[in-house]
Each structure stands twice: as structure tokens, then as C-alpha cells.
Amino acid sequence: MRALTLRGAHDAAIAETDDEPLGAGDVRVAIAQVGLCGSDTHFYAHGRIGAFRLTGPHVLGHEASGTVLETGGEVTDLVPGDRVAVEPGLWCGRCRECLAGTYNLCADMRFLGMPPHAGLARERVVLPRRAVHAVPAGMTATRAALLEPLSVAVWAVGRAAVQPGEQVLIAGAGPIGTLVARVALAQKAARVIVADVDDRRLARLAESTPGVETAHVGTGSADGAGNGFQDVAADLDCYLECSGAPTALDDGMTRLRPRGRAVLVGVPAAPTFALSSTLIRYRELTLTTVHRYAHTWPRAIELVSSDAVEVDDLVSDRYRLEEGPRALAEAAAGEVAMKAMISVGAS
After folding, report:
1. Helix/strand/coil (H, E, C) string of 149-214?
2. Which of 15, 40, 98, 101 could serve as a FRET partner for 219 with CA atoms 20 to 30 Å apart?
3. Which domains, ranges and CATH numbers included, belong to the chain?
4. DSSP label at residue 57
5. Which controlled-vocabulary keywords does the entry list (predicted)?
6. pLDDT tens-digit series, residues 1-24
């Protein structure tokens, strides 16, 4: 079968790969749509992300939807033809974190699309039943594929413990920041402000998401020390940093009220960055982080199927599977406005 395969930095191709055997508790899925994430384009541009390095040809993609082709003998609640979304994190189910329910922190996690585990930008994949989520028959393949980034937003808003009536600041008007804003609104936040340096993304967000305020922020002082957020409203309840910009977490926390809450959602480019211990200590701020998600898919499916959260407009550029190498190149070059979606099969 065909797969979007990365052979090295700036070297992607459509290559043939083998089908996997079907186990008794498995589901074989025909992939319909795969969204490209920032991690995919980072691998394309650099051949690595942190400790994860390409060591040979690697299939990308972890935001996917499809249709059930066949099931193993122990799977009784899915049948061929069912529409599904794929949860790409395959947890062990045995370690302390899995047994505690926080399987996103599994000690033996196999996350599809992260080397050495082949991703989902291929025609077919075999998955354990727990990684396959049935979606309503009327849900499009594009919407089902976008349940994965929406799950990140659902988990982030949960980690921030956003309550009805609260005031929320979000840094980053890209796909994740946009989804976090929409989930916060669905959670009945009274005020949601999204800050970014990109006026085009802010304009797009303001037009597409009623109820969101936007704020243009600077990149901080010339020496990179901040603060680019000084004109943003203050005394806010919580702040979710979704941009990955090096000073954004520290800058945004200045807008929090005493005992406000901050969540690091975006992945910073550098493994270390500076924070003001004085600010955190004097205001007794709470800072936490997000690593993927756990148990979010039912909520994500509910938000999309009920039209509480719009996702379709995140897709700005569409490609066929054979155009996957071009999609990666254009996304890495900044030529994709928001999100690229690759059509693998029937949608």
C-alpha cells in the first residue's frame, strides 16, 4: 500500500509499505483523511524533534479518520463500513500511569507518527480496538480527523480548570489556540482573549469565532526579554500558552490575577526558557502543562456532532496522498495558512 514516507530532512516521497497482520482484538481501518500537524512539518524540516530522530524511512501523520475494513474475532462492537477516528497514542495498559487513568503519561507509550512508530498517512492501518473511536454516520471524514487536535484543546481547557464566568487569555491563533478558544467558550467562559503577533490569523479568528476578543502582541524587547503583552487586559483568571514562543509564557502570566492559573500547551522551540519566579511567587500563580490527552474523545465527538465547536474552517489547504511531499514542503515553508489536510481515500 502507499504511504507518505519521510526519508530525511526535506526528503519525502510516496512509498510502498506492507499491510500489518490483524490480531483478534484489532481493527483494520481504511484511512480517509490525515491532517498535518506542526510536528510533521518539524520532522520534515529538521529530521528530529527533541529526542525523537529519524533513523530510517518513516511514515508520518497522527490526525486521521477512516472506515472499518475488517475486525478481529474478539471485536464485536464495530463492523465493516463504520466511520471512525483514530486515537494515535497506543498505551500499554499495565504501568502505574495507565492504571491511574493518565495513560497519556504511559511509560511505554507508542505514539503513531513519532519514530520509530509508523504514522497514519497511509492507505490502511491495523489498530487495537481501544484506539478506534466510532463517530456518528453523518460526521465527515475531515471532522473526524480533526478530533485529534480538538482532543488536545479539550485536555488543555480541562487542565486549566476553566469555569463558567471566568476570563481566559490564550496565546497563539493557530489551529490549537483556535480550538482552545472555542472549547473555552463551550465551557461558558465569560471572556476569551486570543493574542498573537500575526494579524492575518487574528482577523481569521475574529471572523470565524463570535465571542472571542483578539489582541495583537509584540515579540517583547529587542533583547528577547519581553514584555509584549503589556497592552493586553489584566486580572484574568487563566492563561493557556499555545504558541511556543520563547517569552510568551512569562509575558502572558503578567496578565493573571493573584492565584490565577497558567497552562503550557505549546511546545517551546528550546528545551529551557526563563520564568519570573517573583511573579509566580508573589501572586501564588499555579503553572501546569499539557502532554497530549486522555479520555477526551467522547467529549470531542460530542462537541463536534452537536456543533458546539466548529472545526471545518481550520483546514485551509487540501492535498491528495500523492501530493503529500508537496504538502509537507509548503507547510514547512509557511505557505499553509492554517492546516493542511491530505485525502487518502474516500471521505
Report:
1. HHHHHHHHHHHHCCCCCCEEEEECCCHHHHHHHHHHHHCCCCEEEEEECCHHHHHHHHHHCCCEEE
2. 40
3. 2-146+312-343 (3.90.180.10), 150-289 (3.40.50.720)
4. -
5. Metal-binding, Oxidoreductase, Zinc
6. 999 999 999 999 999 999 999 999
